Target: Autotransporter outer membrane beta-barrel domain-containing protein
Amino acid sequence: MGEYEPFALASVGKLKNFTGSYVENHGTNLDFGFARTLQGLHSTLTLMPFIEYGHGNYTAHLDDGTRGDGKNSFMGAGFLARSDNKNGWYYEGSLRAGHAKSDYQGVIEGYRASYSSDANYVAMHVGGGKVLQQGEKDLFDLYGRFFWTHEASDRVKLMSSLGSAPYDFDAVNSYTTRLGLRWTHNLSQTQRFYAGLAWDYEFSGTAGAAYRTLRTSEPSLKGSSAVLELGWQRQLTKANPWGLDLGITAYAGKQQGAMFHTMVTWKF
Model:
């Protein structure tokens, strides 16, 4: 029949994205769901429905010294599936969808201005890898993943002392790959430490807006980032049906900053 493992994941941190100028975002993300494992003859299938929520605040800095501030949030749901084969190969994929909101306050052409935006989003990822065991205590996970995120277009009213003006924001598509290696060292039967390195590459991530026949410049997230992860896990056991994962993920390059996470799982 398989086992059910509810989980709660919280992450918090600060990320800076360079788009010609740069945007600095402080955010918190929450995920809740459960995992169900199904044992097969040669593989284990994990099915994971979940809901997600996030909120944060940001500052946008332009090259000419202009600064804008705002808040953003999102809420959605998703489903992840993963197949782990006994020979060490695994394959995974996920699909997410939801709604995102943001607002902005700043100075445009010398005038205080503000707007609010609402848009739906959809995202997916596919990936796979190979887990290699070295001795009794060490595992090496070599993996590759592809991520796609789409946020729909939106028409907003830009409010200023001059009145209001309609702005049309383009839909945004992000295409990102990640290649990485994670090392896991078993400290005991229930505890383990992990460390990983990865390379992210964003192929697009451009965003633009238009007012009548005029268009803004289109900042882009295209480029590479290095990723470092460090963490500690306590495994679920029959004697202790609670699991814990504490970790940090740091970024350098096109994206800079760090995210801290805590994940709690339990069995029933």
Q: What stands out?
A: The chain has a mean pLDDT of 89. The radius of gyration is 21 Å.
